Amino acid sequence: MNTGIRINQREQENVAEVTECAPSKRRTRGRPLADASVGPDVILRAARRTFAKRGYDATSVREVARELGIDAALIAHHFGTKETLWLAVVEQIAELAEPMFDALRALRTSSLPHRERMRRAIELCVDHEFDEPDIGMFFSTAATEEGARLDRLRERIVRPYHDAMFPLVAEAVDAGAIRPVDPDVLFFMIASAIGTTVSYSHLILEFTSLPTRRDAFRQAVLDVALHILLD
Fold first, then answer.
1. Domain HTH tetR-type, which positions (predicted)?
2. DSSP-H helix ranges across the chain
């Protein structure tokens, strides 16, 4: 008789546990509906921010999911593994940069003098960095990768950027419109300096409030870049 009572009590406890868990299960079943509002573009931007801050090795898919308040399974559904998520982030950055690359290529056939072409090219670069301010930080951490990831970074971002910008720089140097410096070194210094300054603006806040005023900060970055290049 005592054994039967203990079994019944245990069954009642199990029923109570199931009852207590039931609301959580209902929320879990409903969660994908909330997750559905978070599309691939939003996921990629969150992943970009996380990869930028922590680097590839220190980032997990679960961490990206926590930032968005979604289930990690949704990220896996859209992008598979962390590796393919990272590659998708690079692809998104390349697609976002394509209008800038097109505009830079178009400047080569412009009727503007070489010096004005360079001025416009720098404006395009600065505007792009301010539109996507975490790209510079992502690139600075991603550039430390090795193997296939570094190859993809070169193929999809570095080379297209170089191929669009370098001819403008080289032609300006050849025409005497800017100082006779190595065009490759000048390109990489300008691109990295603009991207780093914008993406690490939180460090500048230690010394000036300028980054809190977007338009003024953009103008300051543009003025300094033009001074380095043209003066």
1. 37-97
2. 2-35, 40-54, 61-68, 72-79, 82-107, 114-131, 135-142, 148-153, 159-174, 183-199, 201-204, 214-230
- What pLDDT, in 10s, does the model give residues 212-230? 999 999 999 999 999 999 9
Q: pTM of the prediction?
A: 0.81
The rounded radius of gyration (Å) of the Cα atoms in the chain is 26
What is the fold, at CATH topology level, of the domain defined by 2-79?
A: Arc Repressor Mutant, subunit A (1.10.10)
Distance CA 117, CA 109 (A): 10
Q: Which CATH architecture has domain 83-230?
A: Orthogonal Bundle (1.10)
Q: What is the DSSP annotation of 115-143? A: HHHHHHHHHHHHHHHHHSTTHHHHHHHHT
199: number of Cβ within 10 Å: 20
